Structure formats: C-alpha cells, structure tokens
Amino acid sequence: MRSMRLILLCVTVLAGCTATPDLEPLPGSLTYGETASSRKTQAAPGTKIQNRFLHEGRYVHETYEVQSDHTYKLIRRTVVDSLGD
C-alpha cells in the first residue's frame, strides 16, 4: 500500500511538470461555476494566488495567475491523497 501511494505521488508530481493548456475548475476552485469576468481582483497582473481545498477525499493545491484584465487563470494543480488513509 505504501509503494502504491509513492507511485501515485510520483505520477502526480510528474504530471504537474507537463504543460497543460487549460485546467478545468473543480468544485472548490476559485473560478468554479463562474464566467471569467465575474471574479476580478485588485492584485497586480502576474501575481500568483494559491488556493487549497479538499475534493473527493484528496487535497488539491491550485495556483492562479492574475491576468492583465485582473481575472484569475488557473495555471497549476496538484492533487494529493489524504494523509489519514
């Protein structure tokens, strides 16, 4: 079981290294269920924003980048199994 978790963690980390054109938001994501123009921020363009939440028993870590129109763009997601299993 421990080796399976290690394999899944490695696969997740390696998957994060590849370029992903557009990540779809999950329930709990900052942009889930919204249009791009409905969430704006005062942060400067290029600023990175972190979001962490629990989704289907797994921890999700997301990184957003503030765009020139002050909307968020999801640029990275890492999913890790719950440590309590």
UniProtKB/TrEMBL annotation:
Residues 1-15 form the signal peptide. Keywords: Signal. The keyword Signal applies. It comes from the Bacteria. The keyword Signal applies. This is Transmembrane protein. It comes from Sinorhizobium kostiense.
